[in-house]
Structures are given as C-alpha cells and as structure tokens.
Amino acid sequence: MSFQEEFLWGSASAAYQIEGAANLDGKGDSIWDVYSRVPGNTFKNTTGEVAIDFYHRFEEDVALMKEMGLQAYRFSVSWPRIMADGRTVNRQGVEFYHKVIDTLIANGITPILTIYHWDLPQALQDEYQGWESRDIIDDFTRYCEVLFEEYGDKIPYWVSLNEQNIFTSLGYLQAIHPPKVSDFQRFVNANHIANLANASAVKKFREMGIEAKIGASFAYSPAYAQSAKPEDVIAAEDAQELQDLFWMDVYAKGRYPKIALKRLETLNIHIDFQPGDKELLAAGVCDFMGLNYYQSATFVAAENKQKTAQTGNASQVSVVSEISDIPTDKLFARADNEYLEMTDWNWAVDPNGLRVALRRITSRYELPILISENGLGAFDTLTEEGKVHDDYRIDFLRRHVEAISEAIDDGCEVIGYCTWSCQDLFSWLNGYAKRYGFIYVDRDEESAKELKRYKKDSFYWYQKVIETNGEQLD
C-alpha cells in the first residue's frame, strides 16, 4: 500500500444536511430552507429544519470521530448562519463555527472548511436571483473574506465551492434543486458567474496571505464510451468536455476548454464574457483539485440512444427530474455499462473509475488531489441490539481505497480521503432513507425520534484502516 505518512483519513458533511437549528441564534433562511418547505420538492416533504441536530450535538459527534481515529473532518459553513441577509455579520454564527473548529483541533482532527455547500441566503435570491446576478460576486467575496479573517489561522485546507456542476445543473437544467428551472442558457450564465465568484474568492485568499491551500470540489464521473464505435468515442469525448473539463479547466487553468466552447456554439449557447472576466478567471487558479467521486458515466452517440436503467428503488424514495430533453442530448446520451453493478439508487459501482479520475486529473493538471467525497448511499437496518451490519458499505469503500492506492502508485499525488459521510444525514431529495454514514442516526422522515447515534460495523472497519494507514483493509 502506498499511502504517505501524512495522508489524511477523513470524512465529510454539509451544514444544511446535519446542523438543524434552522432559525436559531440569528440564522436566516437559505434557499434550501425555503425550497424544502414546498410540498413535493423533497421525499416525503422532509427538511433540514432539525436534520441530525449537529448544532447542539457537535461535541458528541466529534467525540465519536475521535474514537474512530478520524484525522480530518470536512464540513461546510452556512452562509446565512454567518450572514442572515448575505451581508451583515452574525457574531453568534461566527462563534458557533469557532467552537466546532476548536473542538476538532482539540481532538486531533484537522478541520477542512467548505465555504459554500448550496445553502445560499434566501435574501440574496430574492434581491437579485442569486447566482444569476453578478452582484453575487462581491457579496460572496465579502463572505469569504470574513471567513478568512476569522478562521484563516486554523484551517489548512479550504474548499471554495462544492460541486458547482451539480448545484447549477440540478437547479437550472433538471429543475430538482432551487431555483427549480430548466433553461440551458440560464444554466450557463449562472455557472459563469459562479466561476467568477470562485475566482474572486481565491484571489482574495491570496491577497490576504492566508497560509493554507484552497481549491474547489468537483463532482467528477469520468466518461467512458460504451463501445469502440468511433461515434460513441466522440460522444464520450464531448461528454468529457461539457460535463467535466468545462469546470475543471477553469479551476486548474483559469480558462474554459476550447472544444467545449465550440460545441456550445453549435447549440447556440454562449458565455457572457464581459471586460475583466478572463483576467479574473486566470487569477483564481486553485492549489488543489477537490474530487467528489461516486460513479463513472458511460455514453453513446445521440443517434444510438437506448433505454437505460431507470431510477429503480430511487423512484420510490427520492424526487426524480421530469426533464427529458436538454440541448446536449443532440451530442451524446447516457448508457448502461454492462460490466458494472448498481447501488440501491442505480448508481454504477466502479472503483476503477476513481483510479481513472485521479489519473486524468494528474495528467491534465498536475495538481494535488483531495478526495473530498466518496461513499455509498444505501438502505441500512438497525437491529434490535442496536447494530448495523453494513458489509456492503465496507466492501464498497475497501475497493475504492485500493483504487486510490493504485493511483498513487501510478504517480498521482493524493492529499487525503474524505468519505461521505461520517454520520447519517439529510440527503437533499432522499430524506433519511439514503444513508451514507459510519454512524447511524436513528430518525426517519416522519420523526426525529431521539436522534440517538449508533456505530455501524463500518465504523470499526474505518477505525482499523486509519490506525494502519490503509494497510488493513479486510
């Protein structure tokens, strides 16, 4: 096994999915607070109003992290908890995160701070439509500046935007995240503004001389061609350009990929470049690439489109997009991969895809990589004895850790591995049915119950992995 001595074994979460305390101590509404209150937007109309109550139970959760031996914990800060209106600093919110960070450090856990994990202040959405207005660039930069000032001497790794490709595409294409629209040009416009805001934050980080590293986390599903047919290969290339490089090139090179821009032109889609945009993007190159990996993606040429595995179990325990056509469907189509098994939610299980992702990032960008998310969403059963026997999760994670080791042997520089997630949490469109954690939180969509924590079998497995620095995987 090839893990360096300073390799960080960690786990991850997001504020809206764990904190609860939705309107306590000066916190304002986020777009997710408002969105999840609308009937039909989430599974069984569940919300993060209580979530798993990390806000009041963080000391208990950190104690469990310490027991497991966790070396790093990636968590996000809620913008509307720091600034209810998106601009005015709320000291109670600021102090809450000081307490969380200090508790992590006191327990020997490296804090990794995510600046934005989808919970935009509703006030800014109401005022100027959030990510669709360039006004957000200054507001986001000021928010980041406050975080840098407050926590800059405590945080060695900062994640600026989490899964920008997901919150823009699901919000502006698939219409299953706020603001729940489907318009490809609006999607591209909002995404470009998010790129500028991210670059502005990175630029501010450097100007302030923060002694740490900063990068964005990208949800990367490396593209495969389903067959060796040349048209399928070109389709996979187009998918890679428009679904992956379209973001990663901006983070790592400070510019959009040429072929992606040209392919968008064929669809009559254009980026609204204004004076200074290209210079700002160039000034916002990241120090590392954050990689959120769950599955690979397989493609065929548009004319070879075929029926794929449906959402299966997910359609019963999730909200599924009803949008059937988007402009890029003219270029490529998703296809099943007959060589891969599927999760309960019909996501392809592909540990080698993680190795592929790490190698492609290394070859194209020569950046260190922080694996900021990787995990298995599944149905878990709590026994009468208070046990959760999740061998399926252990097997999934073991095979992905082996893939990381192989990628390191290939020459990839990997900073650390943050599983998704440490505790079970609110899963956006899946309520509490889709569980990811090492720690089972006893609640469901109907009731928060007592929110009691139970250590799953995977808790003890990861404990041994950390203790042996990846040598003990059985």
Automatic annotation (TrEMBL):
InterPro entries (UniProt xref): GH, GH_1_N_CS, Glyco_hydro_1, Glyco_hydro_1_AS
Active site, UniProt feature: 373 (nucleophile)
Single GO molecular function: beta-glucosidase activity
GO biological-process terms attached to the record: carbohydrate catabolic process
Domain of life the protein comes from: Bacteria
GO cellular-component term (any): cytosol
Alphabetical list of Pfam families matching this protein: Glyco_hydro_1
Keywords: Glycosidase, Hydrolase
Family (UniProt): Belongs to the glycosyl hydrolase 1 family.
Protein name: Aryl-phospho-beta-D-glucosidase
